[in-house]
């Protein structure tokens, strides 16, 4: 009889007393929580709780540098289509909103110019495209050029110029050939001589005329007696007039 | 409706007898040119004669020779320029031209005669030149003797000389602007 009991499979154990008690307690707690939680939440002042949190202490515990170091800025920038962004910018409206004079007053132009590698800067700028999009007339009209020029130290700029190098690059012979100095001098000399002769002749003729009037008056010929000439020389004039 | 400008006579003194002042200034210029060129030529002559003769030669030492040379040079200067161009360099600067009495071109013969009788105008305290002022045709004694005249060859059409214009006698005188 015992062997027979041993050979049969044991039936699953029946839940014990403790399990029954715990299971019942859980149900009770859950039902209590379900009943109490809404009331507790309603009674809780969240703003008061947030105000009691020391945000600054939390922020101080965050290592921003480490976080920033872990960000791959280049990868982000690579993903940005700058051309598209630039195309969407209304440069004209931006320019109109900028008080250029106020900006320029704050800029130390001299030190700025010294630090700028103009060649590299110019090489990177597509001037044609830029100029097509900008209303230069309006921009220049708003600039106080006198004030800008007044702030530039020309002496320092000139001091940086190597005049000898500049002069060496000038082809004086070509310039002289193009200006035709010889013909210029000849023409100006001829013009001066002609003007001098005209002036001398004019004065002489004027005095002749005055003298002619005086003599006519002395000889009682009448002032309006015209100066004649050989008929052969005056005839063409009479026909012409 | 006509305007004064439209009916004004042509302002041009070309072909009119030249006045005393213009001719005198031209004469002075010619004298200066003759003196300068003779001084230069004299130096050349002195150098040549000194080199050829082997001893120093100076025109200042031979006064009579110098005077003769000056007169000859002045005659050549005047006669040649008048024959070739109808004016001396001085006359050209003042815009003058010598012509025959009737206005025709001066020939070589008349040019030579005119230069030869020119000194006669200096006689009687320059009365020959004074004739330029007194005569209506402004001809000096040497002009009368050589049957020549001196006229303006320069176009005095400039506006600064417009006041010099005299309307030709007759109907060419412009009407008054206020006339109806």
What attributes does this structure have?
A: 241 residues, mainly alpha, B: 180 residues, two-stranded antiparallel ribbon, 2 strands, 6% strand, elongated
Topology of helices and strands:
The complex is a heterodimer of chains A (241) and B (180).
Chain A: H1 2-7, H2 17-43, H3 46-52, H4 55-61, H5 64-70, H6 73-79, H7 82-88, H8 91-97, H9 100-106, H10 109-115, H11 118-124, H12 127-133, H13 136-141, H14 145-151, H15 154-160, H16 163-168, H17 172-179, H18 181-218, H19 231-240
Chain B: H1 4-7, H2 20-53, H3 63-85, H4 89-93, E1 96-100, H5 108-117, H6 123-134, H7 141-146, E2 148-152
Helix pairs in contact in B: 2-3, 3-5
Order of helices and strands of chain B: HHHHEHHHE
Classify the oligomer: heterodimer
Largest sheet of chain A: none
**Domain module tally of chain B:** 1
Report how far the terminal alpha carbons of chain B are from each other: 10 Å
Structure description:
The complex is a heterodimer of chains A (241) and B (180). Chain A has 241 residues and is mostly helical. Among the domains of chain A are: 90-170, no CATH class; 172-218. Chain A has helices at 2-7, 17-43, 46-52, 55-61, 64-70, 73-79, 82-88, 91-97, 100-106, 109-115, 118-124, 127-133, 136-141, 145-151, 154-160, 163-168, 172-179, 181-218, 231-240. The longest helix of chain A has 38 residues, at 181-218. Chain A is rod-shaped, with a radius of gyration of 53 Å. The termini of chain A are far apart. The mean pLDDT of chain A is 75. Chain B is mostly helical and 180 residues long. Chain B contains 7 helices and 2 strands, in the order H-H-H-H-E-H-H-H-E. Mean pLDDT of chain B is 81; it is low at 1-10 and 166-180. Classes of the chains: A mainly alpha (241), B mainly alpha (180).
